[in-house]
Structure formats: structure tokens, C-alpha cells
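Researcher: Please generate the 3D structure of the following complex. Treat every line as part of one assembly.
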Amino acid sequence: MAARNEQQAAEKRRIILDAAVRVFASQGFNGCRVSDIADEAGVAYGLVYHYFRSKDEVLDTLFLERWNVMLDVIRDLDGQDLTAREKLYAIASFIIDSYRHDPDLMKVIIVEVTRAANSFGQTHIEKITEAYELIAGIVARAQADGSFKDTVTPRFAALAFYGAIEQVLSGWIFETLPRGDVEFEQAKRLVVETICGGLDAVPATA
Amino acid sequence: MAARNEQQAAEKRRIILDAAVRVFASQGFNGCRVSDIADEAGVAYGLVYHYFRSKDEVLDTLFLERWNVMLDVIRDLDGQDLTAREKLYAIASFIIDSYRHDPDLMKVIIVEVTRAANSFGQTHIEKITEAYELIAGIVARAQADGSFKDTVTPRFAALAFYGAIEQVLSGWIFETLPRGDVEFEQAKRLVVETICGGLDAVPATA
DNA sequence: TCCGCGATTGACTCATCAGTCAATTCCAGG
DNA sequence: CCTGGAATTGACTGATGAGTCAATCGCGGA
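Model: Done. Output below.
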């Protein structure tokens, strides 16, 4: 049958996805119309429904695509011979660089998906939990080999770590924090320093 | 004139607000109809518009009401003679107890407002930033008096601290973390321990 | 007892969109 | 060329839901 040209079809699909990122980022998922996406993509309204079953599926796709890349990166990192601190730094770097590279996409993922996680299927929550668990694993192994103390549970450390990153991204997204290459690099360092080093001048247990 | 009975009017308004909390929590702000709120409150559709200018204003009111209480608590705490760590613990306690006391309200605030500050006015972002700044102030003063080291900026420490709390609340909201009195108390301790104590077994600077 | 005004009602209007579908274009293979 | 089916189009439908408003109710004061 020769599906016209599979590559071209995939490209059209991507054009629509990329347009959706821009539209979702600027108007919000609920604030935009499907026709806005079509217009932005320079494509007829109906074509969106040729490539996607629904408006929801477009958002779904964007999230899963990106989140899976991140999970792969974390898993890969996890297999390498690095200290826990180095692994955490690498994860923070990946996420922050993702923002640097495509702020709109990250905005959509952070702002729209969490809210949608409510109404959308359980799928997203499971995916998000998966990331936490990978991070918790890194912490747990560091505690086992003595490089991290075990005053906090790994699960909890993972939450705090990811929470710090998410807050920083939110700060950039909502423009309450200055953005720029210097700030991005500083943020990577500070996330890791806060979580690993803590704030106390004198460690609780000597 | 005697506005019928001012107290009764305020009560009706409150009944509508409380109903809105339940409806927003279970269906989401965008997923519900104004008539759902009216039904839940046992009140006619039009009455919602007698007390509020729009659906948005209902959510607005819920957020501001609660957030202002929190800001007051933090400001009050800030004036007391406590260590920075104690202050942070008290803030974490207040937020977590707020969740314990009214999980639906906190769910609405976190899911619909904090993470969606986008679609709403700039007002909310400013309010949220205000909280960060108060926390940053606590950290800054602790750094000045030597009880906190100054490896991270106060602004950043505040982000990490609040981020950790928000992640924990999200975990409870989306049911990926176990809930219960024991967990609530543990969470307070762990948030503060993570941020203040850090994960490293050996402090970076001896 | 009656009056006046705010509280309360809910049917209605009107705009908005997600999703459908019949018509048309375009390409690949024969 | 011609033909079959996929890609593409955009007008249309049907549902939905925010906000309006004219009518009614009922309390507090005189």
C-alpha cells in the first residue's frame, strides 16, 4: 500500500505537535481551541483529528514523548560508574538543559500535565512516580555504601530533589526568577548543593 | 436597611465557597459547571452570581483567603524568638496541618492555582512570591548569624524548601504517598531534615 | 399588618468549540 | 494515463455551559 510516504506523514504529525507546544504554552491547554493548533501548524482543522484521536491525546503525546526520554536518561545514568552526587547533578542538568532547549515544551509539561493528571488517566501519575523511584534508588544505594547518611528516607529525598528542580523551573516559567546561561548553571549547582549539603552550618551528627 | 442579617449573608457565601471546594477538588476547576457548585451548596444557580462576579472569582477567593492566613502565620512566626530551623519546622507544620484539616481545599490551591498561576492574574504569582520572600528572609538572617552556611542563596533555599513541601502534598493528593497522622508528622520532620541537614554523610566543608 | 428591598429562583440566551464527515486533492503503483 | 486509497480540507452539528434577568419570596422595620 505504501502509506504515501511514511516519513512525510511522521513529519506532518510532528508539525502539529510542535505547533501544539507553542499554543499550549501561550494560551494553556484549556484556553486554546483545536483550531488554534491547526492554524499555528498551517494545517486544516480536520487534519489534527486525522493524526490524533482528541485534543487530550495531543497533550498526552507531548508529555509521554518527553518524559520517556527523561526516564531513559536517568536509567542510563544510573548504570554508569558515578557518585550519587554526580548522578543527581547529571539529572538536574538534563532537566534544566531541557528547559533551556525548549522552554515552551517544559512549560506545558509542568503547568498543564500536573493539573491534567487529575482528570486524565492514571498513566501520567505512574510515569511521574517512576522517575521518583529511580531517583530514590540512587539515594538508597548511596546510603547503603555510606556516602549518604540515612536520616531521611530515599523516597523523601527524591521528592525534595525533584521538588526543588520543579520550583526553579516554575520560577523561570512565571518569570519570578532571572533566566540566562549563568542562572541555568548556577541552578544545577544549587539544587544539588541544597539537597546534598543542606543548610546547617554544623552537621547534626558529627 | 439592615442588610437582612449580615451574618446570614456571610454564611450563605461561605456555604457556596465550601461547596466549591468540594466540587473543584473532585472535578477540577475546568471540569465542573457552576451549576455543580450551586447543586452541591443546595442553592439556586443564580445565587452563585449574587455572591460572586464569576466562576473565576470563586476560586480567587478561596486561594486568597487561605494564602493570606498562611502569610500572616509566617510573618508572625518570623517575629518570634526561634531558631531558623524551628521557624522552618513551624511553617512546614502549618502547611501540612492545613492539608490534614482540609485536604480538599489544599488540593484546589495546589492543583488549580499554584501550578496554574499562568491562566490567572498576576496577583496570585505575587502572593506566592511573597511567601518565598518571607522564607528567604528567614534563611538570610540565619546565614548572617552563622547558624546556616552561605553555600546557597536564600532565595534558592526557599524554593527548595517550599518545593519539597509541595511535592509531599502532591504525593498525598494524587495518592502516591501513604497518608495518616504518623506520615504527616514524619513529613514535617523529613522536610526540615532534608533541607537543613542535607544528604551528604560528610559535610563538604569541615 | 403592610411595605420595601435584598435574597433567591431557575429558565433562557448566546457564544463557544470539540469532534464529524462528505468532498476534494494528491501520490504511488500498475 | 488511470485508479485506489490515503492525506487534506473546512463547513457543519450538537452539546455544553457561563452568565443574565425578570419574577418571586420573605425578613425586618414601621
